[in-house]
């Protein structure tokens, strides 16, 4: 199919259903104007994440990968009263842009951005007793996705929803012995997901303005 139709359908959905306000629109503009990579989730994906998170009635949300804060705002608005979102970001410049966008959205008091390598910050969160988190969204560098997932499990409870973005990669996950480190990282994550009996998981494919990709959804099972 022509990729143009994917984008056109997304725009049709966005026009009718997506409640993107001025703060979210400003966030997208600030990301572009600040020279950050144009890799944020789409409007439709943002509202999808928001709906998923609201179903969990979250008081604690963890996000791995902040970028400019676009997905952070969608998730932060799903928090229950008195809740908090912690977002991990490697790049200090990205974190500064995100903080401004988050403040502009009125979420400065409920969102905390921690700057540093996620694989160093995640053990600290565990030591600090920051969890368990009700929703965890993984959307960072793909090579260590399997490790992010393992730490997410340690910071979870039965019923926690773990979401991982960009796990189809236009079907490249079917390539054996891929030379693309991001594809290889996602493949390793999927194998780890499949081998984890403590979660019920699936991956759904998506098309749209982000072309052909998908998200993994995993819910932590009740203890037997």
List the main descriptive attributes of the protein structure presented here.
224 residues, alpha/beta, Rossmann fold, seven-stranded mixed sheet, 8 helices, 7 strands
Could you walk me through the main structural features you see in this protein, from its secondary elements to its overall organization?
With 224 residues, this protein is of the alpha/beta class. The protein has a single domain (3-220), classed as Rossmann fold. The chain is 42% helix and 18% strand. It has 8 helices and 7 strands, in the order αααβαβαβαβαβαββ. The protein has helices at 3-17, 22-33, 43-55, 70-76, 92-104, 118-128, 145-154, 181-194; strands spanning 60-64, 84-89, 111-115, 135-138, 161-165, 199-206, 213-220. The chain has a 7-stranded mixed β-sheet, sandwiched between helices. β2, α5 and β3 form a beta-alpha-beta unit. The longest helix is centred in the N-terminal third of the chain and has 15 residues, at 3-17. The protein is globular and about 45 Å long. The N and C termini lie far apart (46 Å). The mean pLDDT is 95.
């Amino acid at each position: 199919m022509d990729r143009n139709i994917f984008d056109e359908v997304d725009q049709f959905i966005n026009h009718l259903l997506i409640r993107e306000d001025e703060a979210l629109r400003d966030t997208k503009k600030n990301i572009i104007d600040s020279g950050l990579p144009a890799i944020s989730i789409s409007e439709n994906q943002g509202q999808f994440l928001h709906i998923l998170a609201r179903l969990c009635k979250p008081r604690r949300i963890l996000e791995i990968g902040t970028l400019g804060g676009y997905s952070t705002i969608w998730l932060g608005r799903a928090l229950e009263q008195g809740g908090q979102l912690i977002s991990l970001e490697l790049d200090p410049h990205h974190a500064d842009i995100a903080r401004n966008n988050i403040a502009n959205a009125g979420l400065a008091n409920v969102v905390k951005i921690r700057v540093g390598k996620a694989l160093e910050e995640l053990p600290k969160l565990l030591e600090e007793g920051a969890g368990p988190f009700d929703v965890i969204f993984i959307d960072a560098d793909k090579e260590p996705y399997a490790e992010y997932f393992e730490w997410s499990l340690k910071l979870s409870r039965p019923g926690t929803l773990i979401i991982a973005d960009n796990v189809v990669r236009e079907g490249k996950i079917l390539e054996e012995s891929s030379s693309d480190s991001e594809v290889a990282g996602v493949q390793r994550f999927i194998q780890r997901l499949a081998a984890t009996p403590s979660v019920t998981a699936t991956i759904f494919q998506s098309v749209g303005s982000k072309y052909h990709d998908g998200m993994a959804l995993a819910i932590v099972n009740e203890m037997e």
